Inverse folding.
């Protein structure tokens, strides 16, 4: 039984690395909303411009719709009003929205803000603007004092990545710059599936940030967090081994990282061949598989391997159908999230 399950597991892992027979499909493009803040001091201007260019380049590579909000007024409106307007027009779509902040942040003990040219935008304001959105949102907050954005924005269907673990980490944050470096780097791809997930970008950027402080002999003043389970707590990078969480909160809550592992700004050629419905179904089954592994110690060996076999067979049939050019998603069987 274990040998058979191992074979099925390898098949499922390697299927996405093979050339799929199905032709590319037309799916709604991902939207990248890139918010570039006020540099404050001249030395940060080229750093912010370089990071913004890296994000814009990745969006172009992905064929994503790109919206940049920065220093210039548009029709007399400052960046804060532009951001609110852009979010109002992005309410409903099956495609992901990546909301990326490049710049500085502050925290006054009650609310965190992102520094813009003109009036700043607060985490509480952003929470209100995001409420009507009926789509998955990836929020990349690379600024200082950004952790409170998790507290305000955490929700089902959102992946939030911040440069700091508290609002009191208010020194200039280098995490955002390293995230831009990791976007399309082959070294970021931990699972070697030809694409960099939001989780992999987070882990790579956190590692590069920690290495910088270590090499400079300086005390780290930023500790990145990721939240994708909606509990508003966040998980640090050093809780992960590879792509799996190896440390757990004392209350046994669901770990972060499972959904972020499935989201890619620049998908591989094979991933791009899947429809939105196919991705949702596959992602749901992979989440079931991860949760099954987490429950293993509470199950008998027969129960565990029986459930594992069923899931692996479903995934194997899915990839076989994709390769054959047929629709692998069973009618009336929605994705599990």
């Amino acid at each position: 039984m274990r040998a058979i399950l191992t074979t099925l597991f390898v098949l499922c892992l390697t299927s996405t690395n093979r050339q799929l027979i199905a032709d590319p499909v037309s799916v709604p493009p991902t939207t990248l909303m890139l918010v570039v803040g006020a540099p404050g001091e001249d030395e940060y201007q080229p750093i912010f411009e370089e990071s913004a260019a890296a994000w814009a380049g990745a969006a172009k590579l992905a064929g994503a719709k790109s919206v940049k909000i920065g220093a210039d007024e548009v029709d007399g409106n400052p960046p804060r009003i532009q951001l609110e307007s852009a979010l109002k027009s992005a309410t409903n779509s099956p495609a992901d929205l990546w909301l990326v902040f490049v710049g500085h942040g502050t925290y006054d003990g009650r609310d965190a803000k992102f520094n813009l040219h003109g009036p700043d935008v607060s985490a509480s304001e952003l929470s209100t603007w995001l409420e009507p959105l009926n789509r998955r949102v990836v929020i990349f907050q690379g600024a200082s004092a950004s952790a409170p954005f998790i507290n305000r924005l955490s929700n089902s269907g959102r992946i939030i990545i911040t440069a700091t673990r508290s609002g009191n980490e208010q020194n200039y944050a280098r995490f955002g710059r390293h995230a831009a470096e990791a976007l399309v780097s082959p070294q970021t791809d931990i699972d070697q599936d030809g694409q960099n997930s939001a989780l992999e970008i987070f882990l790579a950027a956190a590692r590069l940030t920690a290495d910088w402080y270590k090499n400079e002999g300086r005390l780290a003043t930023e500790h990145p967090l990721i939240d994708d389970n909606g509990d508003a707590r966040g998980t640090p990078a050093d809780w992960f081994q590879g792509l799996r969480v190896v440390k757990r909160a004392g209350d046994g809550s669901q770990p972060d990282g499972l959904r972020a592992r499935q989201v890619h700004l620049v998908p591989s050629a094979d991933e791009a061949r899947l429809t939105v419905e196919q991705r949702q179904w596959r992602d749901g089954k992979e989440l079931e598989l991860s949760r099954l592994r987490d429950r293993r110690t509470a199950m008998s060996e027969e129960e565990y391997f029986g459930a594992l076999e069923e899931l692996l067979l479903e995934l194997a049939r899915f990839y076989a159908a994709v390769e054959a050019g047929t629709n692998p998603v069973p009618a009336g069987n929605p994705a599990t999230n």
The domain at 31-268 is CATH 3.40.50.1460 (Rossmann fold). The chain is about 40% helix and 15% strand.
